[in-house]
Amino acid sequence: MTADEIRGEARGTAPAPLSVLDLVTVGAGRTATDALRTSVTLARQSEHRGFHRYWVAEHHSMPGVASSSPAVILAHLAAHTTRIRLGSGGVMLPNHAPLVIAEQFGTLEAMAPGRVDLGLGRAPGTDGATAAALRRSSRLHEGADDFPEQLAELTRFLDDDFPDGHPYRRVHAVPGPIQATSPGGVQSPHRPPVWLLGSSGFSARLAGSLGLPFAFAHHFSARNTIPALDLYRESFRPSPVLDAPYALIGVSALAADEEKEARRQVRAAALNMVRLRTGRPGLVPTPEEAEAHAFSVIEQDFIDSWNADVAHGTVDEVRTRLDDLRKRTGADELMLTTHAHSAELRLRSYELIADAYDLPRIPRDEGAPQA
Fold it and tell me: In the chain, pLDDT over 70 holds for what percent of residues?
């Protein structure tokens, strides 16, 4: 693993590398199968249009989000792509045993050598009851508090370097480095780079102190973006994988051919967030349902505040917002996430943004998998 497997390259006229975050959203009247098929189409389109990486998130017990199993989805996407980096944005480490994650992402690395990222978060990615069911424990605070120790354990499994005398010294994540030390063994030189994800200062400081790349959730914690990035940079200590900080930010963005349609779609997506925040998660509603909804004053205030941080409208408006955000934050990479009921409009949004920045069209058969 080297810095070259972490740092992206800006293409076309983009101010920074552009990437994609996919929550595999399920709209009203659609199925999870529909959503996953859209993800395959979007991943292939993103690769074709020169986006740098494609991440999927981990969420649970949310009908409108079909990304509860990132490793499974990434394996499927690996079979349909050849170049684009694939990763988790992220796997919620306290929900899983570190060895299981090391095995899953070692397997993904074997499927797609040199293009797998392992993004880790410390939040549950769901409500407390669901987190307890995942972890088989009601002591949820312990998972977050133990995050640095869990991260250290996961890293040792990935590197297969537990010290002598450690109870896990003879436990090995396979696929992994142990295969290179077996008689006749040959092991890939790659291992998934570890990223820390965050929406506050905790992971920013930890990522900096460990010399790891950092991904900040600007798309739902915009007020904390600049303080967290400043903390990351101030805390950064060079490491074997990075000699300088590297931070990406997640950005909600929706470009449409008509401004009115973009406004309709983001209003519907915001209604979905209102329901989620009030304990009523559901499928992403249609724009028509959102238009017919009688918003309370509190709900309208939330929607106005939420959509103020979504870069939406015509592609010129979106490009201006993205350029300004990059300038204000100094982010090394922008990871775009598009929330809309319409799969076609989501795909169109990324295409419009790619065109706006003159991203290259990469032949689809380039680097095709060998039989």
Answer: 94
| Residue 70 to residue 192: CA distance in whole angstroms | 14
The secondary element (H helix, E strand) that includes residue 111 is helix 98-111
pTM, 2 dp: 0.94
DSSP state of 332: S
Could you please report the per-residue DSSP string of 71-95? HHHHHHHHTT-SSSEEEEEEEEGGG
Q: Which residues share a beta bridge with 334?
A: 18, 249
How many other CB atoms are found less than 10 A from the CB of residue 77? Answer: 25
Q: Which of 319, 87, 72 is nearest to 196 (CA)?
A: 87
**What number is the average pLDDT over the span 188-204?**
91
CA dist., res. 153 & res. 120, Å (int)? 13
Token pair in block for residue 124: 């549950």
Q: Is 32 helix (H, G, I), strand (E, B) or coil?
A: helix
Of 209, 75, 74, 100, residue with least CA distance to 154: 100
Distance between CA 90 and CA 147 in Å, rounded? 14
* Residue with token string 């792509």: 81
Classify 284 as helix, strand or coil. Answer: strand
The mean per-residue pLDDT over the stretch 84-100 comes to 95
Helix crossing, 315-329 with 225-235: angle to 10°?
Answer: 40
Percent of the chain with pLDDT over 90: 84
